[in-house]
TrEMBL record:
Keyword terms: Histidine metabolism, Hydrolase, Manganese, Metal-binding
InterPro entries (alphabetical): HutG, Ureohydrolase, Ureohydrolase_dom_sf
Cofactor: Mn(2+)
Organism: Paenibacillus agilis
EC class (word): hydrolase
Name by which UniProt lists this protein: Formimidoylglutamase
Assigned EC number: 3.5.3.8
Gene: hutG
Molecular function as annotated in GO: agmatinase activity; formimidoylglutamase activity; manganese ion binding
Gene3D superfamilies tied to this protein: Ureohydrolase domain
Length: 329
């Protein structure tokens, strides 16, 4: 089994403290609570986000990518630690620890992550998954599908430069997940935003068309075009019973996000990605979020890690914001 480590080291959630008791000066490290996964426990209020890390780069290795993404979950936690926590008192953030992939056992680790995600959803927490290579998404998907059952329609929204729809008959990797899902699950649909025209072969565009993928190219996603894109995104979410969101950090321009395996010289700006995350995570059908492909080993001065943490914060704040009315109940 993929190893489940319930508690991250005490040296991870450390940051600046402006005041030890005054909540209005709190940052993430002052409010995050450790939690036991898979242990019987009372259900959370709907105002709870649950972080879980996936220390895995086996999918990237199999896809001939550059290694380092397994170090991202704790690096992202460290960067989140000092971000101001700006929600009301009823909102909680728990940390369920890390699932670690060892001995190249990717499929087992994805299953372990899936079980953790199902557990969190069954306790009414909103999972926020810190990958890992983009193979993290497949474990995330397994957990969501198990929670909602086989018959519910699931809309999967991916913000990515790549389709990740390569053949998986030899082995799944970080380049195969959406083909695995669409070929195995007729109640799932796929919408990907930020595709690079020259980051994918013609064959991958053909497979995307064959499998009914909705996609928007990066070059169609700039100022003046966003209203139309947000409307398409909203329409896609409305068509499904549930939605899940995944961010492949290589969709962002390489100047802002150099710390990824396959960087994008023409990638999106962080502000566009922030708007997409806000739109999707605010929607009531969205169950969960993952961030993948941050690679600390390739980063420059922590720039990609910090951006990844800020985008994760956007997802968490959007999830919390939609539950504002329930806060404190
Ligand atoms: N996770 C996806 N990775 C891309 C890598 C592309 C590249 O190396 O240029 C893919 O498989 O298509
Ligand atoms: Mn990608
Ligand atoms: Mn990807």
């Amino acid at each position: 089994m993929g190893t489940l480590r319930n508690h991250v080291g005490t040296d991870i959630w450390i940051g600046r403290t402006d005041h030890a008791e005054r909540r209005s000066s709190f940052r993430y490290h002052q409010i995050v609570e450790p939690m036991e996964l898979l242990a019987p426990q009372e259900t959370f209020s709907t105002n709870t986000c649950a972080i879980i890390g996936f220390e895995c780069e086996e999918g990237v290795r199999r896809n001939q990518g550059r290694l380092g993404a397994a170090g991202a979950p704790n690096a992202l936690r460290q960067a989140l630690a000092s971000i101001p926590w700006r929600t009301t008192e009823g909102h909680r953030l728990v940390d369920a620890g890390n699932v670690t992939c060892s001995n190249e056992k990717l499929e087992e680790a994805q299953e372990t992550l899936g079980n953790a995600v199902t557990d969190l959803l069954s306790k009414s927490a909103t999972p926020v998954i810190l990958g890992g290579g983009h193979e993290t998404l497949y474990g995330h998907y397994l957990g969501v599908r198990k929670h909602i059952g086989p018959n519910a329609s699931l809309g999967i929204i991916n913000i990515d430069a790549h389709f990740d729809m390569r053949p998986y008959d030899k082995q799944p990797s970080s380049g195969t997940m959406f083909r695995q899902i669409l070929e195995q699950d007729s109640n799932s649909s796929y919408f990907v935003l930020g595709i690079q025209r020259f980051g994918n072969t013609q064959e991958l565009f053909d497979i995307a068309d064959e499998l009914g993928t909705r996609y928007i190219l990066e070059e169609e996603m700039h100022l003046g075009q966003m209203d139309h894109i947000m409307s398409s995104l909203y329409a896609f979410m409305e068509q499904h019973d549930y939605v899940m969101l995944t961010l492949c950090t290589d969709v962002i321009n390489a100047a802002y996000a150099p710390g990824v395996s396959a960087s994008s010289p023409f990638g999106l700006t962080p502000m566009v990605v922030r708007d997409l995350i806000r739109t999707v995570a605010t929607h009531k059908k969205t169950l969960s979020f993952d961030i993948c492909e941050v690679n600390p080993a390739l980063d420059e001065n922590g720039r990609t890690i910090k951006l990844g943490a800020y985008l994760t914060n956007e997802a968490i704040m959007a999830f919390m914001g939609r539950n504002m009315d329930d806060a404190g109940t």
